[in-house]
Amino acid sequence: MNRTKILVTGGAGYIGSHAVVELYEAGYQPIIVDNFVNSQESALNGIRTILGTDIPCYKIDCANEAAVRGVLEQEKDIKGIIHFAAYKAVGESVAEPLKYYQNNLGSLLVLLALMPEFGIQSIVFSSSCTVYGVPDQLPVTEQTPTKPATSPYGNTKKICEDILNDVTAAGKGQLRTILLRYFNPIGAHASGLIGELPLGVPNNLIPFVTQTAAGIREKLTIFGDTYDTPDGTNIRDYIHVVDLAKAHVVAVERLLAGGHADVEVFNVGTGRGNSVLEVVNAFEKATGQKLNYVIGPPRAGDVPAIYADVTKATQELGFQTTTSLEDSLASAWKWQQTL
Ligand code: UD1
Q1: Contact 60, 32 (CB under 8 A)
Q2: Of 19, 25, 39, 251, which is most buried with the most CB atoms under 10 A?
Q3: Ligand 1 atom closest to Cα of 220?
Q4: Is 175:255 a contact under the CB 8 Å cutoff?
Q5: How remote is the CA of residue 205 from the centroid of ligand 1, in Å?
């Protein structure tokens, strides 16, 4: 089988590793680059066991132009890039903004500088619903105005979108770009062989929930219950990571088929909003685990409610999620038990 090569930056990370599996299963040849600062080599073992084959992986920093050039020279005929590699901790980005700007902008700039030289015309970029800030209307569509970022992390996503818009426009059809605005990815591969590997105390809700159920954390603190939402807790759109990974496969297919002259933007969520308390209840129901939790003060910078309108991805990419919130949470729990 002659597989089209796709460079996957951050391919050993949480979303990246699931996308590598889906790409390979769809007939592509993923080529991973990852510096393993926020991922572990065990993800490669999981990928190998799921696919029954090794996926090439280069341990390099994506912001290092010479190193990325070396990979592109060695692999020669890469046809597209999915760019996941980035730092993603909101709080850390406030404390260490320069680290975020250098890494998140630097890696994209390196890729964009090298793409023409190697005849690579297609890029899918990992953006985030964070670009909508606190939206005036729900659900958010791709036309919902973006808002100034509330953290350096969020700002890197916004600036990277701007860079891609400018470079794509100047490229006169030589660069084809899809921005995927992720909502909240959760869960793990059904095999239980790959999943999220948070280092230290998790920032994100679901790893904190599963670690609490596993007895690693004493209790979950729900960050506020007096928001203007039906039960007072924040609302998010939790999408199963394999569903999210599949969106990358359809995005790549669209770009390789000729894509679109302009940058295309797609929300990738389920279209459902669930509150933190609903997540806790769904977790208990799906797993039979009782969760120890308390209500704490709100977390600075949290958006009260956001969820996606996914009409555009459904109509234009044929994208549909298939995993329920409970099944997503059950998969996260299955994964936690392997750690
Ligand atoms: C944030 C970012 C998002 C980024 C993601 C990656 C914003 C607005 N969102 O998502 O862009 O991609 O992190 O890390 O910048 N919660 C608790 N207790 C906890 C942990 C979380 O109650 O211990 C609540 C939060 O208040 C929130 C929900 O759970 O309402 C989800 O939180 P989290 O998983 O951290 O994701 P976001 O903040 O939505």
Answers
A1: no
A2: 19
A3: 23
A4: no
A5: 6
Per residue of the chain (339 residues), give pLDDT as tens.
Answer: 789 999 999 999 999 999 999 999 999 999 999 999 999 999 999 999 999 999 999 999 999 999 999 999 999 999 999 999 999 999 899 999 999 999 999 999 999 999 999 999 999 999 999 999 999 999 999 999 999 998 999 999 999 999 999 999 998 789 999 999 999 999 999 999 999 998 889 999 999 999 999 999 999 999 999 999 999 999 999 999 999 999 999 999 999 999 777 899 999 999 999 999 999 999 999 999 999 999 999 998 899 999 999 999 999 999 999 999 999 999 999 999 999
Of 179, 223, 275, which is best to mutate to test ligand 1, by the most ligand atoms within 8 angstroms of its C-beta?
A: 223
- The reply to whether ligand 1 has any atom less than 6 angstroms from the CB of 229 is no
Task: Name the residue at shortest CA distance from atom 18 of ligand 1.
Answer: 222
State the catalytic residue, choosing from 28, 87, 153, 238. Answer: 153
Is 15 near ligand 1, meaning CB less than 6 Å away?
no
For residue 288, the tally of other CB atoms under 10 A from its CB is 10
153 is catalytic: yes
Tokens of 86: 């980035």
The answer to whether the beta carbons of residues 67 and 107 sit under 8 Å apart is no
Decide whether any atom of ligand 1 lies within 6 Å of the 128 Cβ.
yes
Whole-Å CA distances, 298 to 201, 224, 292? 18, 4, 18
**Residue nearest to ligand 1 atom 36, measured at CA:** 204
- Residue 217 backbone dihedrals phi, psi, to 5 degrees: -115, 145
- Could you give all domains of the chain from N- to C-terminal order, each with its CATH number? 5-186+238-269 (3.40.50.720)
Q: Are 255 and 176 in contact (CB under 8 A)?
A: yes
- Substitution candidate for ligand 1 out of 203, 231, 268, 281 with most atoms within 8 A of CB: 203
CB environment 31-56: b (16+ within 10 A), e (fewer): bbbbbeebbeeebbebbeebeeeebe
